[in-house]
User: Fold this.
Amino acid sequence: MTALDLLADFGFEAAAIVLGPEGERARRGDVERVRPWRSVTKTLTGCGAVLAVQEGRAALEDPAGPPGATLRHLLSHASGCFYDSERTLQAPGLRRHYSNYGIDEAARHLERALGRDYGDWIQERIAQRLGMEGLVWDGSPSVGAHGPLTDLALFAAELLRPTLLEERWHAELTGVQFPELVGIMPGFGKQTPNPFGLGIEVRGTKSPHWTGTGNSPATVGHFGMRGTAFWVDPAADLALVVGTSHDFCDAHREVMPRLADAVLEEHGG
Assistant:
């Protein structure tokens, strides 16, 4: 039995790709099927933002969003914005409030700074350079991307061995922003603390969580409510990309951590 045999435990269609630093190590299922990435889209938006900062087109401390907030606050769910509106729950930097609106507002700020459509920026500066030929950017920068798992695997591989971002900026993207902040992790309850990078989740010591108990605190990634997810563990030098045909549910909460630990056991070390 291999780690990816656990995909059968979902009880519905599922596919996955395991990656090491040299590239793909294993795959199972329909990895070419175009799937909605939903909140996994945020990781591309965050990477595109840091690319713009690296090129001097924007700055993480740019005022953006509600009064007192910056681009950094928006990208790390620390702006105080509600989930889906410009209304605020509290001042920036006090709590981790997961916000699609905040990510979309960050993209609007970047569009003004870049003078161009943000989806075009993502396609040109990330997708085309990494060979993500199936990526469809349709609508919201927080939830709008669609594509095959093979494209998401190319992005996961980029996070494992960066080529687009200099070391300093890769560390900004994947490092914890405002590390002390507490907040609700969608689907997993209150986390103290609740670490996030710039458009990307950082595992930290969250429990319960959708990654494995063996994943390092430095593991980054995201899951989407339409059943697509990925993680990159720099300590294990591994990445896992998963897609399913079912919205995120109890099966994902139960199977995803076991799958992660099985991948780490089979392919780690």
Observations:
- Residues 250-267 form the longest helix (18 residues).
